[in-house]
Design goal:
Elements: H1 3-30, H2 37-51, H3 61-67, H4 72-107, H5 113-120
Helix pairs in contact: 1-2, 1-3
C-alpha cells in the first residue's frame, strides 16, 4: 500500500469511528425517555456500547475513543451529564456553545481602521461624505 493510500485509509477509519460515536450520542439523547420498546432498545444498545470495556472488536467504544485520541471516561461523563440535563438543558448548552463560537469569530474582526489596515495590508481612504 502506498503512503497516500494508508493516510486515506486511516482518515476513513477515524471518520467512521467519529460517525459511530456521534450516532451513539444521538441515540442516547433521542431515546432516553422513549415510549416504544424499539426506541428503548436503541437507547439500551447505545448505552451498553458506551459503558462496555470491550476491546475485542474494531469499533468497540474503547477502540473508537483510542482512534479519535479521546479519553473514554470523559466521553462517558459528558454523555451522562447530557442525559441528566434533559431536552431544555441540552438546548441551552448548545446555545452557549454557539455564543462562544460567535464571540471567537467576533474577536477576529478588526475593530478600527488601523487594525483593518494591519490585517489587510491596504491603505484606506478617508470616509467621504454621503451626498
Amino acid at each position: 500500500m502506498k503512503a497516500n493510500d494508508t493516510d486515506n485509509y486511516e482518515r476513513s477509519q477515524r471518520e467512521l469511528a467519529d460517525g459511530v460515536l456521534k450516532q451513539a450520542q444521538r441515540d442516547l439523547q433521542r431515546f432516553h425517555s422513549a415510549p416504544s420498546s424499539i426506541e428503548r432498545e436503541l437507547y439500551l444498545e447505545a448505552y451498553r456500547w458506551v459503558m462496555s470495556d470491550d476491546f475485542s472488536w474494531p469499533f468497540s467504544f474503547l477502540n473508537v475513543c483510542e482512534s479519535l485520541n479521546i479519553v473514554p471516561e470523559d466521553i462517558r461523563r459528558d454523555l451522562k451529564d447530557q442525559q441528566s440535563l434533559g431536552a431544555l438543558g441540552r438546548w441551552a448548552q448548545r446555545c452557549a456553545q454557539g455564543v462562544k463560537r460567535v464571540e471567537e469569530l467576533l474577536g477576529r474582526v478588526p475593530r478600527n481602521r488601523q487594525q483593518l489596515k494591519r490585517a489587510k495590508g491596504v491603505i484606506l481612504k478617508p470616509d467621504l461624505p454621503l451626498t
